[in-house]
């Protein structure tokens, strides 16, 4: 479904930024498990060593799952942005502009408190879809603001 046919209020999620980390997370667990079993069968590693390696693979997978779960959700009270480490809800009237300059990896929001908030859910790597999603976010912002943005 293209951005033009998506509901204006649909959550924003990256396409490639979701698939690749999930595949890599599964690969991480599988690879570390196979290596741990192989190292145990040749007799050079004990059970604790094997568990630590599998635990390391699970930790990598958990980080990659978090990356795959980034999104931005339009809500009545504002835009809830879940990035890699933090989740923040920004009221619509606190968002002054949506920016997606050439060369930036993802959209950023210019906020009333002079802060800039990255929206990793809309990524340049998604190509035309990423640009369409940035336009959809700007359109949604224009409709949700109760007051016009201040003049520059």
Question: Main traits of this protein?
Answer:
alpha+beta; 3-stranded antiparallel β-sheet; 2 domains; single chain; 152 residues
Number of discrete domains:
2
**Shape, please?**
elongated
| Discrete helix count | 3
Poorly predicted runs of 5 or more residues: none
* Helix content estimate: 40-55%
Radius of gyration: 20 Å
Strand content bin: 15-25%
Query: What is the averaged pLDDT score?
Result: 90
Describe the main β-sheet briefly.
3 strands, antiparallel
- The assembly state of the depicted protein chains is single chain
Strands ordered across the widest β-sheet = 1-2-3
What is the terminal separation in angstroms?
36 Å
Q: List the helices and strands in order.
A: HHEEEEEEH
Structural class: alpha+beta
Please give the number of β-strands.
6
If you had to describe this structure to a student in words, what would you say it looks like?
The protein is α+β, with helices and mostly antiparallel strands and 152 residues long. It folds into two domains: 16-68; 71-144, no CATH class. It has helices at 16-41, 47-68, 128-144; strands spanning 71-75, 78-82, 87-90, 95-99, 106-111, 116-123. The strands form two sheets. The chain has a three-stranded antiparallel sheet with strand order 1-2-3, with no helix packed on it. A three-stranded antiparallel sheet has the order 4-5-6. Strand 1 (71-75) and strand 2 form a beta hairpin. The radius of gyration is 20 Å and the shape is elongated. The model has no long low-confidence stretch (mean pLDDT 90).
